[in-house]
Structures are given as C-alpha cells and as structure tokens.
Design goal:
The chain is built from 6 helices and no strands. The protein is mainly α. The chain has one domain: Four Helix Bundle (Hemerythrin (Met), subunit A) (Up-down Bundle), CATH 1.20.120.450. About 30% of the residues are buried.
C-alpha cells in the first residue's frame, strides 16, 4: 500500500478522523451528563463541544478567508461564542445551547471545513492565514493547529466520560476504519 498523500489530502484525512472521533465520543452521551461538571474538572461536555466548534471557526474557517462566503452565521453557536472562549467562566450558561444545537453545529462546521478542503489546492496551505485568531504563519499550520486543538479536547471528553462512568460501544471506531480504507491507495 502507498500511504503518501499531498498535504491538503493529509489535512483533510486528519480532519475527517478527528471529527469522527469527536462525534463518537459525544453523540451517545445522555442528556443528563451533557452539562455535568465533576468536582475538580471545571468543564463539561457541552462547553468542550462548543469550544471545539469555535476553534474550527477561528483556526479553519476564518483562517481560510472563506468564512463569510460559507455563511457561518448558520452556526447557532455564533450568537453565544463568548460562552466557549478559552478562560470563560460560562460552564453553567452553556446550557443556553441545547445538546442538539451543539451537535448540529459540530456537523455543520465539519461540512463547512470540508468544503474548504474540497475547493483548495496544496499551494494555498502556504498562504498567510486571515483573521486575528490564528497563531500560525500559514493556513496549513493553522489547519494543523485546529486538528491538534480538537484532539486535545477530545482527550478531555474521554476523561469526562471515564469520571462520569459513561460507557461506549465504540461503534464509531468502525467509521475510522472506513475512512482509513477510503484514503489509502493499494
């Protein structure tokens, strides 16, 4: 098998697997646990999902420069983005967005980012990112940061699942295997 791919397809693959992992970790969580804040952790699944969506917005959609033409105002989180910023003390107010709203925004933000990847070319990854949020020097570095940022928070979600004793059937791992098969060349 040949596992080499250009950078754009690598970012696309990484984002597909990251999104699949994120969805797998949150979509089966009962509503009763969605806003639970275990002692000593100062976070909950709702806040982490909102923060992940905001990270996608800032480091992928804005950095690409396409956030306005992609109509990101469709993301319901944009009306409450301050709730999910780093350092916000809004864990309890995160309930202003329902689990369903956040899951829909998670899927919509995925679709918006994938539309960027599907219309971009490899050389565009070397361009300067747009927006004030990006810590990166290029769009590609900003995309890479966004994937790393999301997986770091997925680790926190995994910890919350463990502390809250939320079991999983890990059916989402099959979806990861499907993505792997689609993205490898024989």
């Amino acid at each position: 098998m040949n596992y080499l791919m250009d950078r754009l397809n690598l970012f696309k693959y990484q984002f597909q697997t990251t999104h699949t992992t994120t969805m797998g970790m949150v979509e089966d969580v009962d509503d009763v646990f969605w806003y639970s804040v275990p002692d000593g952790l100062n976070t909950n699944i709702a806040w982490l999902v909102g923060h992940i969506i905001l990270g996608r917005y800032e480091h992928m959609l804005v950095a690409s420069g396409l956030h306005k033409e992609l109509h990101v105002e469709k993301l319901s989180i944009m009306k409450n983005s301050e709730l999910f910023e780093t350092g916000s003390k809004a864990l309890m107010r995160a309930e202003s967005l329902s689990k369903q709203d956040l899951l829909e925004d998670l899927v919509l933000s995925y679709d918006l980012v994938m539309s960027i990847f599907n219309s971009a070319n490899d050389s565009s990854l070397d361009e300067l990112p747009f927006g004030e949020f990006s810590m990166a020097e290029t769009k590609g570095a900003s995309f890479s940061w966004a994937v790393q940022h999301e997986m770091w928070h997925v680790g926190q979600i995994s910890l919350l699942r463990k502390v809250l004793e939320i079991s999983s059937d890990f059916k989402w791992v099959k979806r990861l295997n499907e993505i792997w098969r689609i993205n490898t060349v024989k």
